[in-house]
Amino acid sequence: MEKPELEVRDLKLFSGKRPVVDIPHFELGKGECLVLFGPNGSGKSTFLRILSFLQTPDSGEIYYQGEKAGEGNRRRLSLKAVLLLQKPVFFSGTVRENLLLGPKFRGISEAERKSRLDRVAALFRLEEFLQRSPYELSGGERQRVHLARAFILEPEILFLDEPFNGLDVHYREKLMADFYRIRRSTGVTTILVTHIREEALYLADRMAVMLEGRIVLTGRPEEISAAPATAEVSQLMGQELLVEGVVESSNGGLLQIQAHGQVVRAFGNQTEGERVLLTFRPEEVILAAERPVTSVRNWFYAEIVEIRPFDRMFLVILECGFRLKAFVSKSSVEELRLQPGKKVWAGVKASAVTTWPGRMAGEFHTQ
Predict the structure, then answer these.
(1) CATH number of residue 125's parent domain
(2) 155 and 6 in contact (C-beta within 8 Å)?
(3) Within-domain flag for 278
(4) Going residue by residue through the chain (367 aa), what tens digit of pLDDT does each one get?
(5) Whether pTM exceeds 0.85
(6) Quick check: is 102 in a domain?
(7) Dist CA 121 CA 182 (whole Å)
(8) Handedness of CA 93, 94, 99, 100 (dihedral sign)
(9) Which of 44, 54, 163, 263 could pair covalently with 193 via S-S, beta carbons 3.0-4.6 A apart?
(10) Which of 1, 94, 13, 16 has the alpha carbon at shortest distance from 51?
(11) Secondary structure of the chain: what % helix, strand, coil (to 5)?
(12) C-alpha angle with apex 6: 154 to 176, nearest 5 degrees?
């Protein structure tokens, strides 16, 4: 069996008694792009620094291609990887000189440095910028150079910490698409850290969701979206916490739930009298001027509280005893003449509502 490119066993780092990183086991396969996804402060960047030997854990083992890292080989193993920090720092000189500096420090021959420069400049479309200072470039162009500095070193493992953070939407999407293409063509094994769901879903071969220093779920993006496993992961994956309710009845897995004066129908394995949390995806909420005759089991007569642009859609916030959120197109806003204060019917399929046992806790709320 092929050994993983990177393996972690019983890795722990504490701040006082609080675990900052607590990962019993983790593996990264050759050629894989794993996106480490979670909210700010969940330990993602710290984990990346530990993996790249910039920070020492309190305990645990790290294996590079089956070789255990220790004092005697850490320097050699670290040369297999490149960590790209979030904010680029450039040296004086041109883009060309900045790109060549890393390979020069690693003792790569002049001919090979020139060959790599030609390849990476073509991959990242940097030819026109090579003789300019990085500080003359836009923020997005500087980030492109920053990424190219990692790829010119041709690492066996690439660590990226929020590489698209702070870019405007247009350039971020463009650079993400270029990175996806380049990483696929080079096949470099990658761990990328982000707190932005859209980046994770777009770039990941596999996702690892991190909360409070622990990896709580791993899988392909579509698997985690379809079965987020916990209410916390559900919210991170774009499902809004809907409301806390009580199961009134269960019929073959179809629950009837009393929630803030409304009856909600959803599928789940909870039993009569049990308290549940309900989550849903805003894109699954249907809005209509009149209640239609459809197979949709949940219809709520709701008042529009707010409408605001959201990426290429509009986010409509409604009140029906609890808050609902819906994503609708511009044409739907115009056709239904949606505006604050207007009442509409909001429909949610029972299969689009996810049930979790328990009560509200922490930051999860109905507002």
Answers:
(1) 3.40.50.300
(2) no
(3) yes
(4) 578 999 999 999 999 989 999 999 999 999 999 999 999 999 999 999 999 999 999 999 999 999 999 999 999 999 999 999 888 889 989 999 999 999 999 999 999 999 999 999 999 999 999 999 999 999 899 999 999 999 999 999 999 999 998 888 888 999 999 999 999 999 999 999 999 988 999 999 999 999 999 999 999 998 888 778 787 888 888 777 668 999 999 999 999 999 999 999 999 999 999 999 998 888 899 999 999 999 999 999 999 999 999 878 999 999 999 999 999 999 999 999 999 999 999 999 999 898 888 765 444 333 3
(5) no
(6) yes
(7) 12
(8) negative
(9) 44
(10) 13
(11) 30, 35, 35
(12) 50
Matching residue, tokens 């922490």:
362
Residues 228 and 245 placed together within one structural domain of the fold: no
Cα distances from 146 to residues 24, 45, 87, 140, 270, in angstroms, run 33, 18, 9, 10, 51
The residues pairing with 56 across neighbouring beta strands, listed in sequence order, are none
Range of the domain at 215: 6-233
Q: What is the DSSP string of 139-198?
A: HHHHHHHHHHHHHTT--SEEEEESTTTT--HHHHHHHHHHHHHHHHHH--EEEEEES-HH
95 shares a domain with 177: yes
Q: Which residues contact 252 (CB under 8 A, 6 or more apart)?
A: none
208 lies in the same domain as 277? no
Element (H, E) at 95: helix 95-105
In a 3-state reduction of DSSP, which class is residue 84?
A: strand
Read off the DSSP letter of residue 124: T
Distance CA 19, CA 178 (A): 36
The residues pairing with 310 across neighbouring beta strands, listed in sequence order, are 313
Exposure class string for 121-130: b at 16+ Cβ within 10 A, else e: bebbebeebe
* Number of domains the chain contains: 2
Q: How many CB atoms lie within 10 A of CB 211?
A: 18
| 153 located within any domain | yes
Query: Does residue 65 form part of some domain?
Result: yes
